[in-house]
């Protein structure tokens, strides 16, 4: 038998007591140079104090600087977002900011987009394992009868989280509980995880069978697109809508509203055939750029970009266009939102801090609508490729 011994594993420098300092960042930069030969001249230049980073990153070594562009004004007439907004967008994709800027101009000349948050839930979805299907069904009834005790246990772990309802789904002897919360101005994944753990422990202790469970049975689909989230909401369900006069669209994009409506039929058939998570042009582009700029968890774009567009060609030739984002996960407090550059970008939008998350969600939806108007028009006008040639090439 061959004696296999582990090879030497280089260890990244770390100080258990004082790791978030310039000194430790410089040691890690030197470590990278020694191990890989790569210099970190740009990564190592930053204006933030490493002391503010605990809870946001480990082994801090420097920063990844992403170019930031400004689009706008985006005119909104929402429940929470009202007025003109200049939108910070962090991206390395040429034409993106210019395209969204054009869509925002169209919206502005139509008097602004209407926006509203129509639902708000964040979930954790444990699965309880019973002896058989009948026991699992009866367990579900017990949960409904003891919702007050479950809610009290969950809400004892958080100041801002509120348990709204528990959805239930059964497969064989498994009972899945989709526990729904409102989470204030935080995105809430960690908050709901902690609260649901407390709720599950209360259930296990108080139910006569003391059933086993796993904290996530995967139907909360954290950072993964899913049909259940599109139907039942994860994060904010937010709508942006605008009515575009034919004259405005022709003047600004060279496309008529009838052309938009004809193309709509082609695009809807294609989205249906491919099983797309979004039947508009490109929700992920604008959301990703905004998420990076404002300190959102960028991985949440996997869920947040899903949605449904709905349109009508009106009798007078105007075009009604709405975008519904079904699973928009955003925050204006906590996570990366309080870091210096991210906070500045939220402050540009008037969206940093308490009681601002619905306003920010409405702005996100308005941005997606603007991007869809611009890109769809560019495809129809034949300047999609030429615009990328003009603005998107740096080689």
Automatic annotation (TrEMBL):
<dbReference type="InterPro" id="IPR009023">
    <property type="entry name" value="HMG_CoA_Rdtase_NAD(P)-bd_sf"/>
</dbReference>
<keyword id="KW-0521">NADP</keyword>
<keyword id="KW-0560">Oxidoreductase</keyword>
<comment type="similarity">
    <text>Belongs to the HMG-CoA reductase family.</text>
</comment>
<dbReference type="Pfam" id="PF00368">
    <property type="entry name" value="HMG-CoA_red"/>
</dbReference>
<dbReference type="InterPro" id="IPR009029">
    <property type="entry name" value="HMG_CoA_Rdtase_sub-bd_dom_sf"/>
</dbReference>
<dbReference type="InterPro" id="IPR023074">
    <property type="entry name" value="HMG_CoA_Rdtase_cat_sf"/>
</dbReference>
<feature type="region of interest" description="Disordered">
    <location>
        <begin position="1"/>
        <end position="21"/>
    </location>
</feature>
<feature type="compositionally biased region" description="Basic and acidic residues">
    <location>
        <begin position="12"/>
        <end position="21"/>
    </location>
</feature>
<dbReference type="InterPro" id="IPR004554">
    <property type="entry name" value="HMG_CoA_Rdtase_eu_arc"/>
</dbReference>
<protein>
    <recommendedName>
        <fullName>hydroxymethylglutaryl-CoA reductase (NADPH)</fullName>
        <ecNumber>1.1.1.34</ecNumber>
    </recommendedName>
</protein>
<dbReference type="InterPro" id="IPR002202">
    <property type="entry name" value="HMG_CoA_Rdtase"/>
</dbReference>
């Amino acid at each position: 038998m061959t004696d296999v011994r582990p090879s030497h594993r280089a260890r990244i420098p770390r100080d258990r007591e004082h790791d978030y300092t310039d000194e430790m960042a410089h040691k890690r930069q030197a470590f990278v140079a020694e191990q890989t030969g790569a210099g970190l001249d740009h990564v190592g230049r930053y204006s933030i104090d490493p002391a503010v980073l605990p809870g946001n990153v480990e082994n801090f070594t420097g920063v990844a600087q992403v170019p930031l562009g400004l689009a706008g004004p985006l005119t909104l007439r929402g429940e929470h977002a009202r007025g003109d907004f200049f939108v910070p967008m962090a991206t390395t994709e040429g034409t993106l900011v210019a395209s969204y800027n054009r869509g925002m101009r169209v919206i502005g000349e139509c008097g602004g987009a209407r926006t509203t948050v129509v639902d708000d839930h964040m979930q954790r979805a444990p699965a309880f394992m019973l002896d058989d299907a009948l026991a699992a069904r009866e367990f579900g009834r017990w949960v409904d009868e003891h919702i007050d005790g479950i809610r009290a246990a969950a809400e004892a772990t958080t100041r801002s989280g509120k348990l709204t309802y528990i959805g239930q789904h059964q497969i064989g002897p498994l009972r899945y509980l989709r526990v729904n919360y409102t989470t204030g101005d935080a995105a809430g994944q960690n908050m709901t995880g902690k609260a649901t753990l407390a709720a599950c422990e209360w259930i296990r202790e108080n139910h006569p069978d003391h059933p086993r469970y796993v904290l996530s049975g995967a139907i909360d689909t954290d950072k993964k697109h899913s049909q259940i989230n599109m139907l039942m909401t994860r994060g904010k369900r937010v709508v942006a809508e605008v009515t575009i006069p034919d004259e405005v669209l022709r003047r600004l994009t060279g496309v008529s509203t009838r052309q938009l409506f004809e193309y709509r039929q082609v695009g809807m058939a294609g989205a249906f055939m491919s099983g797309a998570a979004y039947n508009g042009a490109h929700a992920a582009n604008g959301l990703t750029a905004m998420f990076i700029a404002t300190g959102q968890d960028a991985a949440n774009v996997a869920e947040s970009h899903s949605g449904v567009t709905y349109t009508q060609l009106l009798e007078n030739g105007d075009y009604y266009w709405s975008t519904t984002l079904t699973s928009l996960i955003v925050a204006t407090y906590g996570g990366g939102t309080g870091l210096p550059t991210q906070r500045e970008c939220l402050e540009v939008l008037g969206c940093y801090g308490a009681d601002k998350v619905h306003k920010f969600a409405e702005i996100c939806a308005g941005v997606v609508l603007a991007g869809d108007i611009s890109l769809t028009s560019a495809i129809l006008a034949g300047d999609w490729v030429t615009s990328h040639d003009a603005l998107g090439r740096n080689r």
